[in-house]
Amino acid sequence: MQIRIADCPPEGLHMEDRLDPGSLKDLAALQESERCLFKGPLSVALTVTPTAEMFAVEGRIRGEVTLACSRCLAPAECPIKISFKLTFSRGIPGDEPDAPSETRQLQSEEMGVVLFEGDEIDFRNVIQEQVIMAIPMRPLCREDCQGLCPRCGADLNHETCDCQKKEVDPRLAVLKKFKFDA
Ligand SMILES: [Zn+2]
Ligand SMILES: [Zn+2]
Q1: How many CA atoms lie within 13 A of 175 on its CB side?
Q2: Which residue of 34, 138, 161, 176 is surrounded by the most CB atoms within 10 Å?
Q3: What pLDDT digit, counting tens, does each position of 45-65 carry?
Q4: How far is the CA of 8 from the centre of ligand 1 (A)?
Q5: Residue 153 CA: which ligand is closest?
Q6: Are residues 173 and 116 in the same domain?
Q7: CB 109: neighbour CB atoms within 10 A?
Q8: In terms of domains, do 56 and 130 share one?
């Protein structure tokens, strides 16, 4: 997903595409780590509107990933639904063209501006950044997942174990002791 600046009409343009996550470097690396599997392509819709020297971009990304449930490790299907608004610019207002590129990068991030060079804007980096930020940190296979028993590792969604029963409430233990002594 990229545009040639010269092809962007004054009224802006809208584009939609389906992107293979494997074709985006960082997402491909995530898939290879096997912690995150994309189900099919990502649907991406972008609206690009030129404003003075900048381009306002509104984007929507839809997809689905399979992750390991953070409680029981079973596959967790997680929808990806992203809406974002960014401004692409060759420079930032009050920018010093001679400033080191790291400084310019920091300044632009603070202002929510994505810098680009040349005659084309490539949206793929932004798309994969947005997807990575949207991947849940603590996915669940279902809202009420019971998780694994911390003692024996039994999957409490499918079986029960005796760990809870064996564990005697310390307050009860004290009572028992009293009874014994009496
Ligand atoms: Zn689970
Ligand atoms: Zn157990």
Answers
A1: 5
A2: 161
A3: 999 999 888 999 999 999 999
A4: 47
A5: 2
A6: no
A7: 11
A8: yes
Distance (angstroms) between ligand 1 centre and the Cα of 159 equals: 13
Dist. CA 137 → ligand 2 center (Å): 26
Q: Which domain holds residue 173?
A: 147-182
CB atoms within 10 A of CB 63: 22
**Residue 165 and residue 151 in contact, taking contact as beta carbons nearer than 8 Å:** no
Query: Based on the domain organization, do 62 and 116 belong to the same domain?
Result: yes
pLDDT of residue 171: 67
Backbone φ, ψ for residue 37 (5° rounding): -115, 125
Ligand nearest to the CA of 163: 2
The rounded distance, in Å, linking the Cα atoms of 147 and 70 is: 8
For the chain, how many structural domains are there in total?
Answer: 2
Report how far ligand 1's centroid is from the alpha carbon of 76 (Å): 7
What's the pLDDT tens digit per position in 22-41?
A: 999 999 999 998 789 999 99
Residues 57 and 32 in one domain: yes
Q: Where are the beta strands (DSSP E) in 32-166?
A: 36-38, 42-51, 54-68, 75-89, 113-115, 120-122
Determine the distance separating the centroid of ligand 1 and the alpha carbon of 75, expressed in angstroms: 8
Tokens encoding 91: 């420079």
Write phi, then psi, for 43 (nearest 5 degrees).
-90, 125
Going from the Cα of 76 to the center of ligand 2, the distance in angstroms, rounded, reads 22
Looking at the structure, tell me whether residues 91 and 115 fall in a common domain: yes
